[in-house]
Structure formats: C-alpha cells, structure tokens
Amino acid sequence: MDIDDDGEHVDRPPTFALNVLQLVRLAQAQHGMRHSDYTRYRHYCSKRLRTLYKKLKMLHGRQKYQKKRVEAANVTCERHLHVSLVCAERAWAHGMELKKDIENGPGKASSSSSRKRPHPGKGGVSSVKRRHMLARFKKASAFATEFSGLCAQRGGTKTALEAEGYSAMMAGLWKMEVPDWQEALNKLLRAKKLFEELAKVGEFDQQALFHQVLEELEPSVRFCIYNLERAQGGAAVQLQEVDLEHLESKLASLVVEAKSQAQQEQTASSLEWCKIKYPVRSEMLRNSLQHALDAEGQLRAAGDPLALYDKVVSAYGELKRLVQQALNAGGGTTTLGLGSDLSDLATAVNGTLLQHSIQKSLLLLQKEQKNFEDGMLQALQASKRSKDKASRSKPGDVVRLHDTLIGHITELIELGMKIGGAQGEVLMEQYAAKAAHYQASRCYFVAHTHLAGKRLKEAHALFDRCTKRAEDAIARYKECSEQDPDAVDALTALSKKAAAFRCCARAEYAEELLLVEQRTRQGMESLSLGDQDGTPTAGSEEVRYLSDNMDSWESFVGPGRSVRIFRIPPALYSMPVKPIFLDTALNHIERPSLDQRLPKKTTFSRMLGWAGW
C-alpha cells in the first residue's frame, strides 16, 4: 500500500458489490427449498463450502487442525464474503431441519438427524434436539453477524446495508425460538426497516425480492407482538422506534449513488410510446432498450432504411422477450404497483415493435408496387427487349405483402382494445382507417391477379369492390382526430385506377363473349356430313374419336370413311393411387392454372432447353 509524505494512505482496498438476498433466494430455489427440503439444502451448502475452501486455498492438510478465519484484510474477492454467508445458511438449514423433526414427532424423525439416539431420560429425544436446534440457530446468527461485519468493511454501501438486514433477520429468527419476544421483535423491525429503505432505490427485480421478504417477515412480527401482549395480560405493546441514526449517512449516500446512476442512464430510463413515457427500472432492460434506441438512431441516419429495419425489429423483439421474462418472474408483486408498471411497459414495447414492423412492411410494399407499375407500363409499351423482366413484380407478390401488413395492423388494433381509455381509442381509430386503406389496396391487386389469369368476371367484380372500399377508407380517415391528407390522396388515385381497370376488364369480357359467339356461328356454318371433314390424313398428329370430342364441330361419320365412335382397344391411363386413404377424389379436382405466375420463355431459353442446359 502506497503512503505519501503526510503518512496518509493513498490506495484504499477495493470494495465488492454483492446482492445478498438474490444470491440466497436463487440457491434456495435451485436446491430443495421450493419443497421445504432442508436436508438437501444443507448438503448443498456443505458442498459449496468445500468448493470455496478449495478455490480460496483454505485447506488444512495433514497438519494440526487450526481454524482459518476470513479477516477483512485478507478479502481479495467475493468468494471470501461467500464463506460466512454459506456457513450461516448451512447452520440455519440444519436448525430448520431439526425443528421440522421435532414438530413431526419422534416416530417421523428423519434418518439424517437421528443417527445417534441418546438414552431417553428426562425430556427424551425432543429436548436434546431442541438444544441442538437452538445451538444451530445461534450459530447461524453468529455467522450472519460475521458476514455483516465483513461487508461493512469491504463491501459497497448497498451490500453493507443488505448484509446488516440479513443479519438482523437471522438474529430475530433465533430469538423467536429461544423465545425472547422483545429482542426478536426489535431485530425483525430493524430488518424490516432496512429492507423497506433498500426497496426504494433498487432495481425492479431487486425491489420485487425485497417486497417478497417483507411479506414473509410480516407474520413473524405480528406473532411477536401477539406473544408480548399475551405476556403483559392483553396490554398493547408500544413499538420502539428503530434506531437507524448511524445508518442515515449510508442511506443518504445510497440515495445519491442511485440518483447519479439514474442520471447516467437517463437516455434509456424510459420508453416513450403514444406520447406517454413508461419507466424502465431494471438494469438489464435498460441495456436492451439502449441497444434498441441505438439501432433506431442508425435507422434514422441511414440512406437506405430498409437494410436496418431487421436490426431494429430484432432489438425490440429481444426487449419484448426480456420484459415478458421479468413479468413472469415478478408476478407476485402486482399488488405493490410494480407488476402493473412492467405490464404497461410490455404493452408499450409490443406496440413499438408492431409500429416498426408496419413501417418495414410499408417500405417493402411501396417497392413492390413500383416494380409492378413499371412492369405494366413496359408491357403497354410492348418493350419486349427490356432486360429487367425478372425483376418485375407479380400481383400475387404484392398481395402477400398486403396480408403481412394487414396482420400487423390488426394486432395493433387488438392492442388498442386491450389498453382502453383515450389512448386506446385514438390508436384504434387511427389504425382502423389504415386497415381499411390497405384492404382496399389488397382488393385492387387481387383483381389484377384474376385479370392476369383471364378470369374477367372476377376481376371486374373485385375492381368494383375496390372502389367501394376506397370510399369507405376515405370516410374513416376524415373521421379521425389526426387527418392524413396523403393517405386520402392515395386512396383517391387508387379509386380512379380501379375504375379504369374495371372498364378494361368489362371490355375484355365483352370481346371474349363476341369471339365465342363468332366461333359458334362459324362452327354451325361449317357443320356437315360430307367429305370436307373426313378421316384425318397421315400427317395429322392424332386420330380423334367422337367419345372424346363431344363438343367439337368435326364430323366423325360419313360415306367413304371409317367410323370413329370410340377407340378399340381403349387407351391406357393412370390408375388412381392411395385407395387406403380414400382420397381418390383428388384425381378429379381441377386446380387453377398458374401460367400467369410463371416467367415466359424467350427464344434463347428455348434453344438452351433443346441443347440440354
């Protein structure tokens, strides 16, 4: 240690931060205490102590046994502080195990605690176990006091206060078993006061843990008061004020540290959504929120935002997972207002995630719509030599993007219904108009899909429905509190385009009916039993029969020709498969044609196909 000219120490020993209650409760939950298995927890503490002694090189070897104590000057890492804490937990678990055996009676005593049975004299086995139990509780209190002293010298401010509260709680539990009700009440009230003060400045998960411990201490405090009143003949017990004068400075410094840390993390201390700020108390959640905000800042500064939207959506998705995990872990604190804050934060994170997903889907949709319109323009101009035919969007691709976008908007509307109030009404009103908007746009592109497949009646009906839905969406936008003139202009243009293509579909359908009528007239005029439609020549592709061509105008009988009624022997055809599963009807289902979705082959591609490429 360096010393200056005045003889004062320059370097101070390092301090260690230790979350005492969190460490203890985690070990208890993982090693039997969920089922009150004190034996298993005591064995775990013994194994943990052996591991600590080995890591800290506190083994005794074969020399004469000499107990090695952990001194404050020798503490170099957190493991040194763990030694006293684990010793206290082991002694407490042993005492609780003996207490459980006493309550169950001599016939139900566990084998681990009744291997050596003394001769039953006055008091019997129960008195021996009770003395043993009190000795273990006293030992647990002594180890907890030692742990508190080490933390006061080598721990941080919060660690020292938490260790002192743990020590007071252990002493109070010991005094309750003696019993010394007044001393037990004083110790428990001191622990309660310390945990109440610590719960005001801790993280969210630590606050939940402190409040859980306070709930567990409350019955013990009431039991002490009851026994004191009973001993005093029913007189009310005057609760003494807890003496925390020497701890006021530590509590004040802890509050200052918490405020300075909050100022450093001010950028990620809250999430703003729908003009409301939601506090983020947990350090883990603040780090995740800061990561999401950084990604959002990069998105605003980027020239091509589409490339960074995946990063933003992924960051908010991770934040949503952590918030839900914290909400599930702290479900027992909803009565204290902490769970409700976290539930509101989960709603805000989910809403922010959906909004970013909607913006990403909108960018993709605008890009696909532009490619589709450019492809239509090139098709109208008959630019067959265009090199970017493969990049043209099909109407089916645009419809799928509309489905994704409408799904996100529907989830956000359901979130607004869940929120309720003025905020939920504004959210539902705004995104209900957007849902009507993009449903009209989807109807427009579904109509184009039918138009490309030559299903003209369906296309005409869908273009007509698109104009009606566009008018309904415009009316919804005008009813909103926040007007969106750009969306109204886009819907007006969409309605005009749908009306124009509706006329095109009607004209094409009329032309198709005219062609059918013309072919029917020509067929009727050419119908004859003469030789002009005789037997097919040798150069024809196939021999046609009446049974297979009932709707043809060809003559299959006549003088000087062979009669072609049906084929003898019949032609071979594939048999229906899977008779066991009774799905032979699938062989008779006519599926829609997908030719309009396939790229058209050029002369060059046909030549490559003939060459075997």
TrEMBL record:
Keywords: Cytoplasm, Endoplasmic reticulum, Nucleus, Ribonucleoprotein, RNA-binding, Signal recognition particle. Its main location: cytoplasm. GO terms for biological process: SRP-dependent cotranslational protein targeting to membrane. The keyword Isomerase does not apply. Coiled coil: none annotated. One of its GO terms (molecular function) is endoplasmic reticulum signal peptide binding. Pfam families: SRP68. CDD domains: SRP68-RBD. It comes from the Eukaryota. Residues 101-128 are annotated as: Disordered. GO terms for cellular component: cytosol; endoplasmic reticulum; nucleolus; signal recognition particle, endoplasmic reticulum targeting. It is found in: Cytoplasm; Endoplasmic reticulum; Nucleus, Nucleolus. Belongs to the SRP68 family. Component of the signal recognition particle (SRP) complex, a ribonucleoprotein complex that mediates the cotranslational targeting of secretory and membrane proteins to the endoplasmic reticulum (ER). The SRP complex interacts with the signal sequence in nascent secretory and membrane proteins and directs them to the membrane of the ER. This is Signal recognition particle subunit SRP68. It comes from Ostreobium quekettii.
